[in-house]
Write a structure and sequence with these properties.
Elements: H1 3-22, H2 28-126, H3 151-176, H4 183-190
Helix pairs in contact: 1-2
Length: about 200
């Protein structure tokens, strides 16, 4: 209730009580005051109803606007969900492509290595070469081995060994030769005495 209307009702009721102390209910002044009280109450009730109606209409309008906003937000949400699903599908496809690229790179490296080996083998076949494979890599010696003989001893041994080898080779060739160069060799080979020996002219 509006404050002015409340004050007006209080004043009218106060006047009604004062008149009732001096007059009866059928008195015209009392009836007039009571009529004014009813008019104020009816007016207040009507105003309250109008206010409630305006509040209801305002609430309905705000509710309709809220529903419209909710509908718009739901539409935006559906669009966002669609984009998220699209991106998820794209992400799955991208991961699959990445795996395929990695596999193709591995295959390319394998085929490239095999092709290189094939080209090398073909080139070796054209050159009549034998395929060589490394069984064990050569390792450098950790420390030089100490020689048992000095350089002079090795040189002397080589010199005398060469002479001895030459003599042995000459004797071996002499015994293995098919011809008979001396009377002694002829006698020994044929087991017969030598009668005549012709010397070589100088």
């Amino acid at each position: 209730m509006h404050p002015e209307t409340r004050n007006q009702l209080l004043l009218l009721k106060q006047r009604e009580r004062e008149l009732m102390e001096k007059r009866t209910d059928s008195s015209k002044a009392v009836q007039d005051v009571r009529r004014e009280i009813r008019e104020v109450q009816e007016s207040e009730a009507k105003d309250s109803q109008d206010i409630r109606q305006r509040d209801l209409e305002k609430a309905e309008s705000e509710l309709a606007m809220a529903k419209a906003r909710v509908s718009g937000l739901n539409g935006q949400l559906q669009q966002v969900d669609g984009k998220i699903n699209f991106l998820e599908r794209r992400t799955i496809a991208l991961n699959g492509l990445k795996r395929q690229v990695s596999q193709e790179e591995d295959n390319y490296r394998t085929y490239s290595h095999k092709l290189e080996e094939s080209l090398i083998l073909d080139d070796m076949d054209r050159r009549k070469m034998v395929a060589i494979s490394v069984i064990e890599k050569a390792m450098p010696a950790t420390a030089p081995r100490k020689m048992r003989f000095g350089k002079e001893e090795v040189a002397a041994g080589g010199f005398f060994g060469g002479i001895a080898g030459g003599i042995a080779l000459a004797l071996l060739l002499e015994f293995m030769a098919p011809g008979m160069t001396t009377p002694l060799s002829a006698q020994r080979r044929l087991d017969l005495p030598v009668l005549v020996a012709i010397g070589r002219k100088p």
